[in-house]
Amino acid sequence: MPDFLMYLREACVENLAEAIQAEKQGADRLELCSRLDLDGLTPSFNLVRQVLDNVSIPVMVMIRPRAGDFEYSEQELDEMKREIVAFKNLNIAGFVFGVLSSQHIDIGRTRSLAELASPFEICFHKAIDEVEDIIEAVEQLADIKQITRILTSGGASTAEKGIGTLQQMIDTASGKISIMPAGKIRPENIDLLHQKLNAIEYHGRSIVVK
Fold first, then answer.
1. Which of 47, 180, 185, 193 has the fewest CB atoms nearer than 10 Å to its CB?
2. What whole-number distance in Å separates Cα of residue 19 and Cα of residue 17?
3. C-alpha 149 chain-centroid distance
4. Quick one: which of 41, 12, 33 has its CA closest to 201?
5. Please, what is the end-to-end C-alpha distance for the chain in angstroms?
6. Rounded distance between C-alpha atoms, residue 66 and residue 63, angstroms
7. Can you tell me the distance from the alpha carbon of 13 to that of 19, in angstroms, rounded to the nearest whole number?
8. What is the pLDDT along the chain (210 residues), one digit of tens a residue?
9. Assigned CATH for 3-121+184-204
C-alpha cells in the first residue's frame, strides 16, 4: 500500500458481536460504547470485560453518563471519575470523553479527568463539534499533555462536509495532538478523505463494513 494510504481505522461498536466482527473485517482499534442511538454512552463493566476477552486489538472506552449536552453536574462528573477508576483495572487502551461549558471546552474539568485517566490514552470526543471556536479548542486541548487525540467531523454533519475545517484543525494541531476525522466514514470514501487530509487515524460506525 502506498504511504499516502497508510492510516489506522477505529470502529465504533456497542456490543460483543460487533466488536468481534469489526476486528475480523480489519479494524485496527475499537471505540466501545453503549446506546449508539444516543450517540454513545458508557458501556457496562461486564461488556468491556467480555470484549477484551474476545478481541486482540486495542479498545477505547466511552465515558459519558447520559445523553444530551456535555455540561455535567458535579454528581455526573463524580460518576465519570468512578467509571474511569474502575475501568483502569482492565486492560483497555484508553478513554473517550468530553466536557463543555457554555460552548467552550471546560478546561478545568477536562484536565481533571485527563489526569485521573493517565497514563491511558485519552480521546476528546465529538463534543468539540459543538464549541463556539473549534480552532481555539484544538489549541486548548493540545496544551493538556495527557490528551492523545480529538474525535471530530469538523463541526459538520459528516467528515466530507467538514473537510475544510478538519484540514485547519490538523494544521493547527501540528502533530502535538492527533485529529481523528469521523462522520459517515466508510470503506468507499475513506481513501478519498485520506488523500485530502492525510490524517493518521479515522473513526466510524461503518468504517470497515462493506
1. 47
2. 5
3. 7
4. 12
5. 19
6. 9
7. 6
8. 344 458 999 999 999 999 999 999 999 999 999 999 999 999 999 999 999 999 999 999 999 999 999 999 999 999 999 999 999 999 999 999 999 999 999 999 999 999 999 999 999 999 999 999 999 999 999 999 999 999 999 999 999 999 999 999 999 999 999 999 999 999 999 999 999 999 999 999 999 986
9. 3.20.20.380
Q: Which of 134, 203, 204 is nearest to 173 (CA)?
A: 134
Rounded CA separation 139/155 (Å): 16
Lookup: cell for 111: 484536565
* Sign of the alpha-carbon dihedral angle for 31, 36, 40, 41: negative
Sequence spans of domains, the chain: 3-121+184-204
**Three cell numbers at 127?**
463534543
Find the farthest-apart pair of alpha carbons in the chain and give their distance in angstroms, rounded. 49
